[in-house]
Amino acid sequence: MGKAATEVKTIGLDLAKNVFQAHGASASGEVVFRKRLRRGQVLTFFAAQPRCLVAMEACTSAHHWARAIGDLGHDVRLIAPAYVKPFVKRQKNDAADAEAIAEAASRPTMRFVPVKSEAKQASAVIFRTRDLLVRQRTQIINALRGHMGEYGLIAPQGKAHVGRLIALIEDPASDVPDAARPCLARLVVALRGLDRDIRELDREIRVRASQHETARRLMTVPGIGPMIATAIEALAPEPASFKSGRDFAAWIGLTPVQRSSGGKERIGRTSRMGERTLRRLLIVASGSVIRWARSKGMPEDSWLARMLARKPPMLVIVALANKTARIAWALIAKGGVYRAPIPAT
Length: 345
Prior knowledge:
Elements: H1 3-6, E1 10-14, E2 19-25, E3 31-38, H2 42-47, E4 53-57, H3 62-70, E5 75-79, H4 81-84, H5 94-105, H6 118-149, H7 162-170, H8 181-211, H9 213-218, H10 226-235, H11 245-252, E6 256-258, E7 267-270, H12 276-296, H13 303-310, H14 313-334
Parallel strand pairs: 1-4, 4-5
Antiparallel strand pairs: 1-2, 2-3, 6-7
Helix pairs in contact: 6-8, 8-10, 10-12, 11-14, 12-14
């Protein structure tokens, strides 16, 4: 067999914390090598390999390794784990995973995840941090409600009413048992600290939005404020990664799942695949837009009024979030600012 037949063309790399698995394949798919690599050996190994396609699953540290291996001259591709799974043969282990990655990367119709720059990843940390702090704040609020409910001390739902419970905890004359008061006071201190940290992050997000030209253009769209504008800029791939606004909305997870068969179209709920943070922000913002439109009134012939007249409110909220995502993609890809449609006369 000639050298060209066994020359490595694709390397599937199964990432891990310490021990990596590499699978080399020729242009015809023949196995060239299977090799285990320690973390410190990875870059040395790839530096000695001829320029080829290196594929990895898009997971923790994948973008870091993609940048590092790409700097060595290789063509690096990231694949969503869900697209690799069908290529795993029978038993699941590191070697089988690496082989499946190489096999998936060789498919001509495979979809790849764009490699993010270090700056792009760094700009997304603020949203991940804020999400974590908001979840922790919700946990503490729920804990306070649960503990105080044990003593018949109840407050209406909503974060704005938690102050009533805090006032009871801090009032020495209230019915809160003295043995429980110190622990509850610690939760109050933690809650106030989280509130302060979240406000500081919100302030930083507003500053970033005011300084970025794309974010300022996105904020001309109804329902997009500093939070969503900077989130799109930080979390979304380059607009060229998508053929249309619908592809961008699908990546966020705002398009319905299809279970069509036999020529009959069956459309289900939204897929919820993709970027969870952006999807949640867009849906929450769409709900606010609809509540504002209902309170202020809207033209009867507008798209939103027609949708609300014949569809359930939650469906309209998701549809509006989908529409907002498409508009955002168009502004990023084509430039300009949002201009409201002129009603027909």
